[in-house]
UniProtKB/TrEMBL annotation:
Keyword Hydrolase: yes
GO molecular function, one term: dipeptidyl-peptidase activity
Keywords carried by this UniProt record: Hydrolase
Pfam families noted in UniProt: Peptidase_S15, PepX_C
Protein name stated in the entry: CocE/NonD family hydrolase
Residue ranges constituting the Xaa-Pro dipeptidyl-peptidase C-terminal domain according to the UniProt record: 348-601
Lineage: Bacteria, Pseudomonadati, Verrucomicrobiota, Opitutia, Puniceicoccales
Keyword DNA repair attributed: no
Amino acid sequence: MFRAILLALTFTSCLLASEKGIRLERSVMIPMRDGVRLSTDLYFPEKANEKLPVVLIRTVYGKASVIDWNPLYRELVRQGYALAIQDIRGRFESEGEYRIATGRREDGYDTVEWLTTRPWSNGKLGTVGCSYQGEAQLVLAAAKHPNHLTSIPLAPASGYYKPGRAWQSFSGGVFELAQTAGWFASNGSKVFYQPPPQVDRQEWFQSPAAALFDPAPKVDFDHYLTFLDTLPIDTLLERAGTPPSDYKLWATSNPDGPYFRDLDLVQAHDTFNIPALFIDSWYDYGPEETLEVFELFSKNALSERAAQNQFIIMAPSTHCGFSDASENTVVGDRPLGDARMPFQELQIRWLDHWLKGETNGVTNMPKVQYYLMGKNEWKSSDTWPPENSHPEKWYLSSSGQANSRLGDGTLAPKPPLASGYDSFVYDPMNPVPSLGGHTCCTGSDTEAGGYDQSEIELRNDVLVYTSEPLKEGLEVTGSIEVLLSVSSSAVDTDFTAKLVDVYPDGRAFNIQEGALRMRYRDGFENPTLIEPDQTYQIRIDLRATSNYFAPGHRIRLEVTSSNFPRWERNLNTGGNNYDETAGTIAFNTVHHSKAQPSYLLLPVVGETE
């Protein structure tokens, strides 16, 4: 996905004026309330004889390339919609200063006002789009323009503010290094070409000469990746020579501090008044947050119409990859069966219902549809989580040698009879490598998804706890937590956890993972270092998934202190971490007893015993 985006940004706009059935008005400059103008491409059915409903996409990636990302967009025009694709403020052809996630409600509102008051518009507008285009829809919905009638946010999790998870840049206070640095290196540039002041901007962008100039920053990612494992992380992109961006602010700010709280993201107090169809993926970076904002749109709805018309579909793919499913879907290296669903047809039917008034039965579908990985089938529910979901504890235990999958770590539904602990050496200069998982836009060779973790599980700095082969299948659908009793020789360190499905042939596919920086164990407002060798009870949020552990499979939990380069390394010093270049080795321990239990909390669907 990442490399596709990078390549797409080097293309110039297709000359759709000559494409059958579609007419393009390129680079129309739409004025905002402060006088800044945003460049927008307008696509119309070539022979439209009536006023049209509008579909809006607001993008950070360059409007000229977005039209080619999804065949849905051209099809919408052919189906009788006016399609508007807009460069957000300060990006590509649009005027103003580019600051991530700022001022989007006002700009979105003003854009809707302009589009729905044109002579060719029928005054009804909907929004579509994935990733940034999805998150932009969330904040626009919160702006509540009366002509914005519906939304289809795809993979929009980064548009929802959850303390400590702002813009999906942290997990338990640990910086999402590969994803955030990769995204900023490719898409964070604050420097774009501007025409000379004596040249009319709109005339320039509509001229053939403008099509020859590509304002996207050129980044040699093979060069950039050589810097990913260097220190300090706050100046990583400066050393790599990428264009100026806000990356350093991201890397150095408190995960729940004023900088992130002031971003223009949807928050728990926001209200909404439109029907929405959410779509996301289990191997994306934010399935939990997408599910939460889906619930928020209903809970904080201003009308019964909005409250009763929130729908969500959770696919098994990686970021924005729902339509890539086939009869034999493979996500990463994990085979997941036939995960196809007519996403394009569904989105068109949704827009036809809310913008054209068609009675087509689209709202008769279940409120929640999710793909049960492992059993490889679509399931449905009227609620999230499913009504028959209940928490089930699986306890960690060992005889003190849970190091690696060759050790004696066990996972069982009953607490251990004897007290014990497992220790490992965490060296930040030799971190446990990332392999697959729930991420995006890293630029690395290993993309997100399910991969066999068995090689990583041979490391002695990875504690491995495995159940007996299951006699009966177990559906796990919902939010997962790990509760650990831990201690460390350091004043600060990280603990990470990974849920794994072990197949009978020994393959061990990652299901979900999470992390916690110990200084944030009691929250982000007042980070507090730990006392060396004192035991603390901590919670690691693995967030949501849906996986069927089939008969004969085993449930496994990995516990260690790194997952690099997905997450930055904790250097164990107790300092800022982001501006440090040297670390210290930590001796970290997981305790398991009746007095100091450590367990995995699974949301199990089915009858309770």
